[in-house]
Each structure stands twice: as structure tokens, then as C-alpha cells.
């Protein structure tokens, strides 16, 4: 249970929290909720995000407080399926003797000294909610907002199959705080910048539907990314376009990166985390990702073959 994590926190004063790279609502909401909770305990805590994610759109709704930690005596990875998800912050993690890994990805291999992985949690935010309760840290409006962002993000505002009775129960408690949840949901799911819509237009131009409509993909090239100066945050929802086709069982979003392709997968049932894991990535049964060091054309062929083997 949470005893080991609670003890590690109690025995530390300077704590660094690391969300995964290509930061999303769950990893950021969870990390900042935990940070604000730790501050309430009198700890010094800081969330260190990947440099590239510092302009993630979520920062305009995430609640934070000004702090800084130079030498941590505890490092906590949040929502990171594997250590590679720490990207350039791996050194921070590896240089600390005391490490904790709090996550909900079934493919997590337990890379820290203390690991808490619950694949039944719709979001890491659910685990952080339980941890704060376990540690008797009072949730306030700011923590509630961060947790709501986390849980609503990863549960698709309580619509994906990972959503449980417990997800709703926690959300029910969170909306009892002073948070503008209609605004938060609109921000996460409905609102786009003009640039995001133009990027979606570029992606949809590449739409490819195969296997009697059961597999679909879109591709975003380096050229498009450069043209629009697009960030990961701005490209975050692109996979939802091929996923939205009514016949599609597995949707792919191929993003051309330096030396290869970052693949995002979404599924209506077949376990795509096995495909992602086979190629060095990971994730959830219905939402996973990996990076292939090869041209898009080749990666697409390989991914389609893997998908063919598991569709119904
Ligand atoms: P997305 O497609 O939105 O980037 O990621 C879908 C899910 O798979 C997320 O939960 C994300 O954390 C996980 N994921 C994406 N890419 C990777 C990867 O390269 N490695 C691992 N372990 N998980 C990934
Ligand atoms: Mn998550």
C-alpha cells in the first residue's frame, strides 16, 4: 500500500516530482496536486517538467506555487510508464538514492526503489487522490482543480472504458470544491487554438483507412511541425481524428521525429499496449505509444501488420 511512499515522504525534506515527457493533463494535474499536498506537509517540493513541455497549454489551468529544490533527497516519477519517459530528466532521477514511481500504466516495469502501480486507476490522479487521503493531507480548491484536470483528461471526461464507479466517486468529491469544472472540461476537450485546428486540417489530409475501415491513421511530418512551429501539446489530440471513424478498431497517429516516428495508438478493444511494448514503448490496453527509429513508410507498414493481427 501507500505506507512505504508515505514513510519516504516523511523522511525527506526536498522532493522533486517528475511528470512524463510530452506532458498531458494527467501527469501535470497529478504532479502539481502532489506538490501542493507536500507543501502542506511543510516539505519543499518542485515539479520539474521536460524543457520542451514548459509551454504546454495545460499550464494556463494548472494551479501551482513558486518553489525550488536544488538537491533532492527524494524523487517521485508520476504517470511515467517507463524510465525513458523522463527523457532528459533521467539524470535527476538516477542521481537520487530514494526514488518513487506512482503510475497507472499496466506496462510499467517498476523502475524505482518504491513502486506503486495500479492499472485499474483511470488516471494517476486517482492514485494521488488516495495517497493524499492516506497521508491525511487536506485537499483544497487548488489541489482539487489539479486532480480534476488529471482524472477528467485520462478518463475522457468520464467516458472511456477505464472509468469506474470510483472514478465518479472521486470526481464527485472534487466538484464539491470551488472549481469551475465546465470550464476545465471545455478547455481540455472542446477548445482549440486556430493553429491546433490548422494542424488537424494538415493531419486529416493524410488520413489513411485500411482493413475494411478497421484501421486508420494520420501522419504529421517534420515539415508540417516546422511550418507551424507545433508543440507536442498542440498536437496532443490529433489521434482522436482517425479514432473517431465509426468502423475503426485501431487508430494510429504517426508523428515524424528526428531519426524516426513517434506512434500513438488508440483501440476500441484489441490490446495495443502489447504492440507498443514489443517496440520499446508502452501504455494502456486502449491507448499506447512507442517510437520507431525508421522512416514513416516503414513504421506504418509494421504497425498496420501488427494491428491486422489483433483486430476482430
Ligand atoms: P499518447 O498516444 O497520448 O502519447 O500516449 C498514450 C498512452 O501511452 C499514454 O498513457 C502514454 O503515457 C503512453 N505512452 C505513449 N508513448 C509511450 C512510450 O513511448 N513509452 C511508454 N512506456 N508509454 C507511452
Ligand atoms: Mn495517465
Description of the molecule:
The chain has 312 residues and is an alpha/beta fold. The chain folds into 2 domains: 2-189, Alpha-Beta Complex (inorganic pyrophosphatase (n-terminal core)); 194-310, Diaminopimelate Epimerase, Chain A, domain 1, CATH 3.10.310. Helices cover 39% and strands 18% of the residues. It is built from 13 helices and 11 strands. It has helices at residues 3-10, 25-40, 90-94, 124-134, 141-154, 165-174, 181-190, 194-205, 222-228, 232-235, 240-243, 272-278, 296-310; strands at residues 14-19, 44-47, 74-78, 99-103, 114-117, 208-210, 215-220, 250-257, 260-267, 282-283, 287-292. The strands form 2 sheets. The protein has a 6-stranded mixed beta sheet, sandwiched between helices. Strands 2-1-3-4-5 form a 5-stranded parallel beta sheet. Helix 2 links the parallel strand 1 (14-19) and strand 2. Helix 5 (141-154) packs parallel to helix 7 (181-190). The longest helix is centred in the first third of the chain and has 16 residues, at 25-40. It is globular, with a radius of gyration of 19 Å. The model has no long low-confidence stretch (mean pLDDT 98). Guanosine-5'-monophosphate binds next to strand 10 and strand 11. The site of manganese (II) ion has 6 residues, from loops.
Amino acid at each position: 500500500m501507500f505506507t512505504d511512499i508515505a514513510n519516504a515522504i516523511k523522511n525527506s525534506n526536498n522532493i522533486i516530482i517528475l511528470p512524463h515527457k510530452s506532458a498531458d493533463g494527467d501527469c501535470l494535474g497529478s504532479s502539481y496536486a502532489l506538490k501542493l499536498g507536500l507543501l502542506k506537509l511543510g516539505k519543499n517540493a518542485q515539479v520539474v517538467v521536460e524543457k520542451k513541455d514548459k509551454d504546454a497549454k495545460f499550464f494556463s489551468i494548472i494551479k501551482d506555487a513558486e518553489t525550488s529544490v536544488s538537491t533532492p533527497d527524494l524523487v517521485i516519477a508520476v504517470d511515467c510508464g517507463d524510465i525513458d519517459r523522463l527523457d532528459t530528466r533521467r539524470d535527476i532521477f538516477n542521481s537520487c538514492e530514494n526514488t518513487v514511481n506512482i503510475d497507472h500504466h499496466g506496462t510499467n516495469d517498476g523502475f524505482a526503489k518504491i513502486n506503486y502501480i495500479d492499472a485499474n486507476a483511470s488516471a494517476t490522479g486517482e492514485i494521488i487522490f488516495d495517497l493524499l487521503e492516506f497521508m491525511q493531507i487536506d485537499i483544497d480548491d487548488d489541489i482539487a482543480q489539479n486532480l480534476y484536470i488529471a482524472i477528467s483528461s485520462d478518463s475522457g471526461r468520464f467516458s472511456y472504458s477505464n472509468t469506474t464507479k470510483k472514478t465518479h466517486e472521486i470526481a464527485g468529491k472534487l466538484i464539491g470544491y470551488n472549481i469551475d469544472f465546465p470550464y476545465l472540461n471545455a478547455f481540455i476537450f472542446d477548445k482549440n487554438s486556430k493553429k491546433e485546428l490548422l494542424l488537424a486540417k494538415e493531419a486529416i489530409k493524410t488520413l489513411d483507412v485500411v482493413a475494411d475501415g478497421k484501421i486508420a491513421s494520420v501522419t504529421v511530418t517534420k515539415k508540417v511541425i516546422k511550418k507551424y512551429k507545433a508543440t507536442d501539446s498542440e498536437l496532443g489530440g490529433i489521434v482522436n481524428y482517425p479514432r473517431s471513424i465509426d468502423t475503426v478498431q485501431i487508430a494510429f497517429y504517426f508523428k515524424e521525429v528526428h531519426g524516426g516516428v513517434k506512434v500513438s495508438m488508440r483501440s476500441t478493444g484489441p490490446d495495443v499496449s502489447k504492440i507498443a511494448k514489443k517496440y520499446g514503448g508502452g501504455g494502456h490496453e486502449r491507448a499506447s505509444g512507442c517510437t520507431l527509429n525508421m522512416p514513416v513508410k516503414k513504421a506504418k507498414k509494421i504497425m498496420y501488420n501488427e494491428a491486422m493481427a489483433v483486430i476482430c
